[in-house]
Amino acid sequence: MFEENGIPREDVLKKLDALLAQDATYVSGHPIASMSTIPHELGAHVFAKTLEKNAGRLHTFRGTAEVEQEVIEMIGDLLNLKKPYGTTTSGGTESNILAMLAAREINKKIDAPEVIVPKTVHASVDKAAWLLGVKLIKTRVDKEFKAVPKAIEKVITENTIAIFATAGTTYLGQIDPIDKIGKIAEEHKIPLHVDAAFGAFVIPFLGEIGLGKYPFDFMVEGVSSISADPHKMGLAPIPAGSILFRSKKMLRAITRKIDYLRGAASTQTSILGTRPAGPILATWAIMKHLGRFGYRKIVVECMKRTMFVKNRIEQNRYMKLAINPVLNILGIESKIVPIEQVVEKMELRGWRMATSPLPPTIRVVVMPHVTEGALNAFLNDLDDVSTTIENV
Ligand SMILES: Cc1ncc(COP(=O)(O)O)c(C=O)c1O
């Protein structure tokens, strides 16, 4: 109900607190399957003091425009691109939509556009195709749930406007063979978009800490664009995403002139008009403050706890991992009973579970807020539940 006369401030806050008591709080070490986390304290501070700033109106907020450009350049540096063309976005969904829009716009002559995707792509790619009138051609994945380059090449037609692949899949944190797919993209002169919404702030550091080198970014010549979300492992407040293009032409393809805005800032490249500048400014501050060293330390911690979960699952007779974890994401399969039975029992114990369909797994994402204590409690319950199910 929308009251005629407002209610006192204290009462409003009390009511709101009562409603929000139902929410999970990250400070408790949960949830254990979220891809966002507690924003870095500096980011929260910057966001709170820049609430009125509008990144859709950069003629008014000129300093913000400069900061946004620096954010794109810093992420470009992280992803091995000296001169990136890009924009900040509201997250991976918007970035993936923009990548598909750019591919469609530079291929306007194609009447029935198709995009080839391994079937492990994030649901936002389906959404993008739905919004943009593009047909998705889904290709198989291998035993480790990685894209199969040959399967991709086989379905290229004259209607193919782009290939999408993922570096850090949502279900398992798997990294598609971007170098091999990149070669195919180059040979056929088709743009390759890499969805590294999650992986961008993790994969670059894995090599440096001895956990594997993965050519996934602009170092691979065939890569034309990358989604990278600061609001996931970048520790920025929501909504903070980005898309980077190798060529100016692709950024130009998603640029619209807004008739009532003035000067150099009279165009917009994101889908949204008015949008918060706070997360962009916060991303800038966090990246400047943490540097590569700070992010590497966070990745080390998250991977340590990932290995802790891996070891515990390997000792559980009823459960197994779908793949050896590559990033700080794990997919847990049930060896004997359908996974849904395990999930139901865990929910009864108060866990808010997340599952993936391919393969049917329980998802665990070891974000910085997920403590060893929370993981221990989860794994103890999982041990208990799996044993009781078997004994029923
Ligand atoms: C690989 C990948 N891409 C895109 C997205 C969508 O990101 P957002 O929810 O920030 O729009 C996600 C979210 O989980 C993701 O894991």
Secondary structure elements and pairings:
Layout: H1 9-20, H2 41-48, H3 62-78, E1 85-89, H4 92-105, E2 114-118, H5 123-132, E3 135-139, H6 149-154, E4 160-166, H7 178-188, E5 192-195, H8 203-206, E6 223-227, E7 241-245, H9 248-253, E8 256-257, E9 267-268, H10 278-314, E10 319-321, E11 329-334, H11 339-348, E12 355-356, E13 361-365, H12 372-391
Parallel strand pairs: 2-3, 2-4, 4-5, 5-6
Antiparallel strand pairs: 1-7, 6-7, 8-9, 10-11, 11-13, 12-13
Helix pairs in contact: 2-10, 3-10, 4-5, 10-12, 11-12
The chain binds pyridoxal-5'-phosphate (PLP).
Residues 35, 91-93, 96, 122, 124, 166, 168, 170, 195, 197-198, 229, 241 line the site of pyridoxal-5'-phosphate.
Explained architecture:
There is one protein chain. With 392 residues, the protein is of the alpha/beta class. It has helices spanning 9-20, 41-48, 62-78, 92-105, 123-132, 149-154, 178-188, 203-206, 248-253, 278-314, 339-348, 372-391, and strands at residues 85-89, 114-118, 135-139, 160-166, 192-195, 223-227, 241-245, 256-257, 267-268, 319-321, 329-334, 355-356, 361-365. The protein has 2 domains: 9-36 and 299-391, Aspartate Aminotransferase, domain 1 (Alpha-Beta Complex), CATH 3.90.1150.10; 42-288, Type I PLP-dependent aspartate aminotransferase-like (Major domain) (Aspartate Aminotransferase, domain 2). It has a 7-stranded mixed β-sheet, sandwiched between helices. The chain has a 4-stranded antiparallel β-sheet with strand order 10-11-13-12. Strand 2 (114-118), helix 5 and strand 3 form a beta-alpha-beta unit. The longest helix has 37 residues, at 278-314. The radius of gyration is 22 Å and the shape is globular. The structure holds pyridoxal-5'-phosphate.
